[in-house]
C-alpha cells in the first residue's frame, strides 16, 4: 500500500460466502504480507446482533483449512482476527450505515497519516436483492472521506478511467465488489446494472466471477498468445470441437432454496463456463489492459448464435425434489449440456459444448479441445482417437496433450499417449492461490482485468435469456438421472451428434 489506510468492509459478514470464502481469502493475503496491520482495518456488517469477539469466533474455524497448522499459523490467526470489527444493522437502515461510517472513519484516522489516503473496499457477500439498497447506503453515508469532501466521485474528477497512480493523487478510493447472480435474465440484470450504475462508476464496480481467479483459467491467455504452437492451430481448420465441462459429485443439499430459483444454467453455465469460453475463443487483445481484454470477450459473446432447443439436454437428479426447500413440481435443471455456436471467421462450424451438472460421478472442471483427424492417415490410427488438448482446471491442475506415438517395441504400431504437465509434480512446493484471494488483491490494486464488465454481462444474458424463459415456462423439461451417474444418456448422444469422438473414459 501507498501512504494511508485500507478499510475492507464485508457486508453479509455472518453468511456462508463470507465465512467460507471472503474471510479465508483475506487471511491468506494477510499471511503473505499483502494486508499490513498498520494500514488495514477489516469490518464485518450484518443484521445479526453479535459482538466483535462473537464474529471472530465464527470465522476462526474457517481460516486454516490445512489440518497440519503450525503455532505460527495460530498466531497469525489471532493477529488477523484482531483487525476485524463488527457493526450490526439492516441493509436499508441509515443508522446502521452511519454507524459503520463512524467506525471506519475512527479507525482510519488512527492509521492514516495527515496526507494519507482513505481507501474503502466494500465486499457485498449478500443476495443481489439487497444490492441496490446497500449501494445507495454506501454512496450516501460511507464513501471515502477525501472524495466526499470534494463532492466528486473517482470517475468524474478527471473523466478518464482510473489507474492506481491517479486514484492515489485524488485522495484514495471507494470500490464495491459484487457476486453473481447478477439478475435472473437480461431484463432483471439490466435493471440491477442501471440501479448500481447510477450510484457508482464502472471503474468502482468489481463483478466477481471466481472462475476468472483460477490459476488455469488465468493461464489461458498466456498459453494461447505466448506460444507459437497454438497460433496456427487454434481455428476451424484444425479444431473439431471444444468442450467446457463442470461436474460436481454432490447435490444442492443445504442450498436447494437458492438453487431452485436459479438452476444450473444461471448458477454455472451463464457465468463460469461462458467466461472460460470467452478466453478460449477470443481474438488476441491489443494489450493486457483490462479494457482491451474485455473488448475481445464482448466480441465473442456478441457472436454467439441463438441456442437451438435440439442442441440442449437438461437433467434433474432423482431425489432433488426431496429437499424440503424445493417445490415438489420443480422443473429446475441440475444438469445441462448444450452446444454454442460462434459465428465468426475463426469458429464458424466448431461446436462449443458446455456441460455442467450436480450430483454426478466425479468432481472435475476441464476444457477439452479436440482436433480433427489427420488427413490421408497412413497408420490407420483413427480408431485410437484424435489429438486432444485438455486443460484441467480442478482438481489437480494439469494440461495434457493426447497424441499418437509409435508403440514402443519391434512392431510399427501406434498407441495414444500423453504429454503431461501436472502442476502438482512440476511446481512442487508452489502454493496455487485461491481464486478469491487473487481477485480481492486485484480489487485492492485496482486491476479490473479479471472482472466482468457491464456490457459483457449484458451480452452473456442475451445468449441465455430466450432458453431460460422457455425452461421457466415449462416448455423444456429436464430428464431424470441417477445421482452419482454421468447424467442423462441423451447428453452423450448430443455430444456425439456435435462431432465429439470419444477416446477413452473421462
Ligand atoms: C458457485 C456455484 O459459483 O461455484 C456453486 O454457485 C458451485 O453451485 C461453485 O458449487 C463451484 O465452485 P468451484 O470453485 O468449487 O468449482
Automatic annotation (TrEMBL):
Pathway: Carbohydrate degradation; pentose phosphate pathway; D-ribulose 5-phosphate from D-glucose 6-phosphate (oxidative stage): step 1/3. It catalyses: D-glucose 6-phosphate + NADP(+) = 6-phospho-D-glucono-1,5-lactone + NADPH + H(+). One of its GO terms (molecular function) is glucose-6-phosphate dehydrogenase activity. This is Glucose-6-phosphate 1-dehydrogenase. NCBIfam families: zwf. HAMAP family: G6PD (MF_00966). Residues 221-500 form the Glucose-6-phosphate dehydrogenase C-terminal domain.
Amino acid at each position: 500500500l501507498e501512504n494511508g489506510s485500507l478499510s475492507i468492509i464485508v457486508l453479509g459478514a455472518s453468511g456462508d460466502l463470507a465465512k467460507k470464502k471472503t474471510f479465508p481469502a483475506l487471511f491468506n493475503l494477510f499471511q503473505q504480507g499483502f494486508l499490513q496491520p498498520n494500514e488495514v482495518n477489516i469490518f464485518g456488517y450484518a443484521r445479526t446482533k453479535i459482538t466483535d469477539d462473537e464474529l471472530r469466533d465464527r470465522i476462526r474455524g474457517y481460516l486454516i483449512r490445512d489440518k497440519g497448522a503450525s503455532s505460527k499459523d495460530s498466531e497469525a490467526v489471532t493477529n488477523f482476527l484482531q483487525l476485524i470489527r463488527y457493526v450490526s444493522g439492516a441493509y436499508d437502515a441509515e443508522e446502521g450505515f452511519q454507524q459503520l461510517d463512524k467506525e471506519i472513519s475512527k479507525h482510519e484516522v488512527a492509521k492514516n497519516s495527515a496526507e494519507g489516503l482513505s481507501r474503502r473496499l466494500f465486499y457485498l457477500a449478500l443476495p443481489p436483492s439487497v444490492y441496490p439498497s446497500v449501494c445507495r447506503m454506501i454512496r450516501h453515508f460511507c464513501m471515502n472521506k477525501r472524495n466526499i469532501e470534494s463532492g466528486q466521485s473517482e470517475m468524474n474528477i478527471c473523466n478518464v478511467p482510473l489507474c492506481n497512480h491517479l486514484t492515489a493523487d485524488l485522495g484514495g478510493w471507494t470500490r464495491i465488489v459484487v457476486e453473481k447472480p447478477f439478475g435472473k435474465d437480461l431484463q432483471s440484470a439490466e435493471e440491477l446494472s442501471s440501479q448500481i450504475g447510477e450510484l457508482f462508476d464502472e471503474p468502482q464496480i468489481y463483478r466477481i466471477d471466481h472462475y476468472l481467479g483460477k490459476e488455469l483459467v488465468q493461464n489461458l491467455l498466456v498459453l494461447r498468445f505466448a506460444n507459437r504452437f497454438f497460433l496456427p492451430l487454434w481455428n476451424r481448420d484444425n479444431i473439431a470441437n471444444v468442450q467446457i465441462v463442470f461436474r460436481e459429485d454432490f447435490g444442492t443439499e443445504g442450498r436447494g432454496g437458492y438453487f431452485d430459483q436459479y438452476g444450473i444454467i444461471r448458477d454455472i453455465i451463464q457465468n463460469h463456463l461462458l467466461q472460460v469460453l470467452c478466453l478460449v475463443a477470443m481474438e488476441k487483445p491489443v494489450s493486457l489492459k483490462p479494457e482491451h481484454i474485455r473488448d475481445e470477450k464482448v466480441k465473442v459473446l456478441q457472436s454467439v448464435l441463438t441456442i437451438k432447443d435440439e442442441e440442449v439436454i437438461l437433467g434433474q437428479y432423482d431425489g432433488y425434489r426431496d429437499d424440503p426447500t424445493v417445490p415438489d413440481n420443480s422443473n429446475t435443471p441440475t444438469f445441462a449440456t448444450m452446444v454454442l455456436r460462434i459465428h465468426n471467421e475463426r469458429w464458424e462450424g466448431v461446436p462449443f459444448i458446455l456441460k455442467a451438472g450436480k450430483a454426478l460421478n466425479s468432481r472435475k472442471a476441464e476444457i477439452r479441445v479436440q482436433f480433427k483427424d489427420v488427413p490421408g492417415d497412413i497408420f490407420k490410427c483413427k480408431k485410437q482417437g484424435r489429438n486432444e488438448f485438455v486443460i484441467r482446471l480442478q482438481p489437480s491442475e494439469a494440461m495434457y496433450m493426447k497424441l499418437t506415438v509409435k508403440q514402443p517395441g519391434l512392431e510399427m504400431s501406434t498407441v495414444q499417449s500423453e504429454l503431461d504437465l501436472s502442476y502438482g509434480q512440476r511446481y512442487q512446493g508452489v502454493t496455487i492461490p485461491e481464486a478469491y484471494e487473487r481477485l480481492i488483491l486485484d480489487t485492492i490494486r485496482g486491476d479490473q482485468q479479471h472482472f466482468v464488465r457491464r456490457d459483457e454481462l449484458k451480452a452473456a444474458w442475451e445468449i441465455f435469456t430466450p432458453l431460460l424463459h422457455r425452461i421457466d415456462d415449462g416448455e423444456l423439461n429436464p430428464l431424470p438421472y441417477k445421482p452419482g451417474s454421468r447424467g442423462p444418456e441423451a447428453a452423450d448422444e448430443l455430444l456425439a451428434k456435435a462431432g465429439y469422438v470419444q477416446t477413452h473414459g473421462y
